[in-house]
Amino acid sequence: MASSKPFHVVTPLRVSPHLSKLAGTKVYLKLENSQPTGSFKIRGIGNFCKVMAEKGSKEFVSASAGNAGLATAYCAKLLEIPATIYVPQSTPAFTVERMKDEGATVCFGQTLDECKNKAQEMVKKNSDWTFVPPFGDPLISEGHKTMVAEMKEQMESKPGVIVLSVGGGGMLCGVIQGLREAGWDDVPIIAMETWGAHSFHASLKQGELVTLPKITSIATTLGAATVAEEALKLAQEHCVISQVVTDPEAVAGIPRFLDAEKILVEPACGASLAVIYSGLIKTLQKECKLPRDLESMVIIVCGGNNITLEELDRLKDELCMNHRMKEYVECKVALAKWNHASNSGTFTASLQKSLGACGH
Amino acid sequence: MASSKPFHVVTPLRVSSHLSKLAGTKVYLKLENTQPTCSFKIRGIGNFCKSWAEKRCQQFVCASAGNAGLAAAYSAKQLGIPAIIFVPQSTPAITMERMEDEGATVCMQQTLEECQNIAKEMAKRCSNLTYVPPFDDPLIWEGHKTMVTEMKEQMESTPGAIILSVGGGGMLCGVIQGLREVGWDKVPIIAMETCGAHSLNASLEEKKLVTLPKITSIATTLGAATVAEEALKLAQEHPVISQVVNDSDAVAAVGRFLDEERMLVEPACGASLAAIYCELTKTLQKDGKLPNELESIVIIVCGGNNITMEELDCLKEQLSSDNGDLVECELAMATWNNPCNIFAASLQKSMGACAH
């Protein structure tokens, strides 16, 4: 582990009464969204960058569509080492700007794979430059496992189950290692993915590493076509229940969670929340894959930067989730306005007529 | 201070790159919205309830439209002690539900004042019943000051200024006491309120406690008609710069913060964020009230439960009733892009009516 103060912070662990009611057991949230750079990535990447800096690295190069790149840029700035992040063209402009705010140079590639190749080529040419992997390195898992060490301090008893999202499997590796160190080896993990980014699920089923031909899920930050080898290996040794949800399921939970817990998360994180919102816990209990009397549950709120209200709306449109819901919401808003005493303007009168049109 | 593990947690302190760019200096966020019960209240009220439980109190009673009541309910549950929370009619259903989820009995009255009178009466009649004040008690300030001791651990150097919101002044008291304890006596505090809930500002102007005749701000959780006497006293001893923003600025800040930091806060909290979004700190620097070279700024993100997306939309609607037509047209434009929306078609027709 890198010496001196880490770049990540100890994150709060708090009970969600809203999710606890739905799950029928105490649900804790590990608020990784409150990390500097908005996601858990700073744990592993912070550790990696600090160790590499101690070994004399002169520049960091990364390939990322978001959170890993931002964590790298942030670490590089704190270590006063220049950083170049290769991002695919699909990366939201606001995420690119955040990376630049941290002082990183941002270069574009067509796809994430192309970005990775360019980044690794750059590093080959310069011996004291370091490629910062988004996952799949022991130093990264070592950083991530601190999440569990914190949970051990924060909880009075062992959790009944831990729920987390899987992209490349970096967090999964760290959490399993952390559970072993904390003496919590028998705590099952529900590893969530979305269809179209389910590389881990596919690999577990085959019993060997599988590469998805294409990422088709909108949860782009889960979009690793192949998980880390270590992730598959550890998942075969630990009690890991792999579950996959649809994109609409991952997105549907986001506004509910926002209203209940006042936190806006990416669909990648929404996949973990779907374990409750889609009733998966109860199904797993019925199928005897989870005990009926669950001591408690911890959901790792991984966070993530690639989301705004506008982006959420765009995703819902893309998934055709907006029709009925939007109509309903608009009717409600119009009704609320109609009741508002300081109602004015001819437009409102027209709205009232329109209300009639949608049968409210 | 109450013995054993507190009910609050150590909250993250992180830099906001967006706000730092706007302010021209490093802006840290003290994320009190990550507390159990989503606001800083658990610090002070947790400490108060624990201390009284040690004195063998058997029941808690509280009067609150939101966060203080929820913190009291949560603390009571942790202590295995029953709690009754009197809430005014204006309390959002979601907040009442949260209180009930913590096992508290929730009783509704017309106004907050009625709630306070009934709650205090009840505590007077029953000797083993303790009234939990929302802000005006030394045990509450003692709990709140832990925010500053954490900041001292988390920061490498003294902050240039601290920005916080003022309702009854409980947080202000705790922060000033905390600053004194850690040797940060000279750190100025920018105390933010909204117009219509500006009881501290009015009191500071008059140099004595002033009671606002009515709370007219939509930031209801800042709605203490009179601040704590101690808050006025400490604000006159410590470098406190009292600032007032209007409701629109507080609400606009909530929207921006949600997109930039992905956290939804109440307008009460938006008032603090508006200090940067509305460039108040730059104005204060120009006026010589803050140094031009500010080491850093810490904003206390107080959090709060009385907010949802629907509530935010309603507040924006309420505040733009003068610009009613414009907002409705914007809404119509947004819905027009959804092809399957029958309602949008009607709205589109109506849009023609307001000539856009």
From TrEMBL, chain A:
Keyword Lyase: yes
TM helices/strands, residue ranges: none
One Gene Ontology biological process: L-serine catabolic process
Reaction equations catalysed: L-serine = pyruvate + NH4(+)
Start and end residues of each Tryptophan synthase beta chain-like PALP domain: 9-303
Cofactor: pyridoxal 5'-phosphate
PROSITE patterns: DEHYDRATASE_SER_THR
Keyword Protease attributed: no
Top-level taxon of origin: Eukaryota
InterPro entries assigned: Ser/Thr_Dehydratase, Ser/Thr_deHydtase_PyrdxlP-BS, TrpB-like_PALP, TrpB-like_PALP_sf
Enzyme nomenclature, EC number: 4.3.1.17
Alphabetical UniProt keywords: Lyase, Pyridoxal phosphate
Gene Ontology molecular-function annotations: L-serine ammonia-lyase activity; pyridoxal phosphate binding; threonine deaminase activity
One Pfam family matching this protein: PALP
PANTHER family for the chain: L-SERINE DEHYDRATASE_L-THREONINE DEAMINASE (PTHR48078:SF8), THREONINE DEHYDRATASE, MITOCHONDRIAL-RELATED (PTHR48078)
UniProt protein name: L-serine ammonia-lyase
TrEMBL record, chain B:
Catalytic activity line of the entry: L-threonine = 2-oxobutanoate + NH4(+); L-serine = pyruvate + NH4(+)
Domain of life: Eukaryota
MF term (GO), any: L-serine ammonia-lyase activity
Keywords per UniProt: Lipid metabolism, Lyase, Pyridoxal phosphate
Encoding gene, per UniProt annotation: LOC114587154
Name by which UniProt lists this protein: L-serine deaminase
CDD domains assigned: L-Ser-dehyd (cd06448)
Family as reported in the entry's similarity comment: Belongs to the serine/threonine dehydratase family.
